[in-house]
């Protein structure tokens, strides 16, 4: 390239990278994956090295985070800047990093830690009390998120010692929490949260801290500002000091004497990290001896005594053979890519979400393209971008469909929403999705009546709505003749359908698919009203007084039961023998009014099974220990929760003692 062409390219890269930084740091909604961003950043650095006198003043190579903090949150000035780390992508770069350290200092080691894929934050304490929380922002100015960090259960609000200090760490969302939130959002017809980092960022910047609390965020502390003031001179000692004060410190760190030991750690955790309940995107390598930092030095943007090794992304390229459209039970139309099968992160992927029309058009995705596909958050297959270099001239630009692919009804696009909807309540696609939801594991839990079976029965006309499930026994002779079915399979299915007639009231309410009413709200309704009739006749003013039920949900509940078609459907279900039971009432409320915490490893039941049992017996299952906790059930490996229970003199039982309490209800 000529100099003119290079400077033009430099300007284009600065513009696009600043936009990507804004999306990542401010919106918490990155539109490109890390390795694409890193590639563009390398191109810019190479050009700036060639033309150092022409570097633009707004270049992202000399900024931390984003300089345009457009936010409704109060700004916070960091007295000690929050610098980012230089990224490296190969072992050769690690050896080069080590050689640079050797040229400056002697007698050093490395503290190696997992790089948590979350939101960098800082918290201030005065006399042991948490008084301020802030985001990193642009490294010099962040956002005041004090009210929200106070909702993070793993972050201590009061230290074990009356110290004044500033502690920095990473706020993150567990994979299991994301899965649970997405399961409920999917059932409620809401857009899924793409990955743990985006979900954590959006939750941390909420103006309403009650929303943050519901998102169940966590935090790992990893550094202390001015550690010498506390007599600490090594990073490994910083981590021990923070843990002793009550902070959650990631246990997967190691003291390494050589760079080869660092590389061994990276190889080990490239596999182990995939089994963890939180997302990681690399390894942080820091010189362990803090007193050497000033000697080793800093650049404008990064310290020279630390780097972040980035794991290679799990991305594959394959051909997009077609785009098909599915209809959710709330009417949302979702475009999906049909792909040549490709192996990504250990599983074969042949379909991937394309989210909505804007997602496709902004990336100019066309049928016949070769596309790069990843598992977003290592969970949901998603098309990232098109390999334009392999595009042929005969591919047509994408055009969004105008009519429902199932019923043909004209689609509607709501104001300020990216999604298109089929608003026909009789749409076969919506009806089928509603039937699938009713029979699903999280609702009526009818074993043997999965998506494929229900689609077959629906297409054959045996099931037209959820009530028809209980008439399926009338087609027993016809069902036995179908491929893949036999006497035993059909008899088991009919038995499971009959047994579901006595499913719990909360699962029945959830199964009806009332808009905005998830599993938790269904439990609250059942606990408050006790019977189906009471719920049907519930008034708006009463509903809004129930825990976690706001005005929008309350109105949706009232509207649902005021609809004659819905009442007719429920009456048919009751006539066919469905008798939803308030199982909390049946349990004699063994744990009524009690708040119970499970911690450590449970050997005879899963954590979810234990929590479900607590709620079944009228109690509240909590994830954090407080003065309101009635008792704690602790298994092997119990840590901070057990310690806090002992500190507050809260009764603690082992798993055997807990099972003895509830044995007559199992």
Polypeptide structure, described:
- The chain has 666 residues and is α+β, with helices and mostly antiparallel strands.
- The chain contains 25 helices and 22 strands.
- The strands form 5 sheets. Strands 12, 13, 14, 15, 16, 17 and 18 form a 7-stranded antiparallel sheet that branches.
- Helix 16 crosses helix 17 (519-529).
- It is globular and about 85 Å long.
Strand content: 15-25%
Distance between the termini: 74 Å
- Tally of DSSP β-strands: 22
- Tell me about the largest β-sheet: 7 strands, antiparallel
CA-atom Rg in angstroms:
28 Å
Query: Count the helices. How many?
Result: 25
Global structural class: alpha+beta
Q: What is the helix content?
A: 25-40%
Ranges with pLDDT <50 over ≥5 residues? 65-70
Mean pLDDT over the residues:
87
Based on CA inertia axes, which overall geometry fits? globular
What is this structure's SSE topology?
Layout: H1 3-26, H2 34-50, E1 75-77, E2 86-88, H3 91-104, E3 110-116, E4 119-126, E5 129-135, E6 141-143, H4 146-149, E7 165-172, H5 175-187, H6 196-204, H7 209-214, E8 218-224, H8 235-245, E9 253-256, H9 259-272, E10 280-287, H10 293-296, E11 306-310, E12 315-327, E13 332-344, E14 347-353, H11 357-363, E15 370-376, E16 380-386, E17 411-413, E18 420-422, H12 428-439, H13 451-459, H14 476-480, H15 487-499, H16 505-511, H17 519-529, H18 532-536, H19 540-543, H20 551-561, H21 564-575, H22 583-586, E19 595-599, H23 607-616, E20 620-622, E21 631-634, H24 640-647, E22 652-653, H25 655-662
Helix pairs in contact: 1-2, 16-17
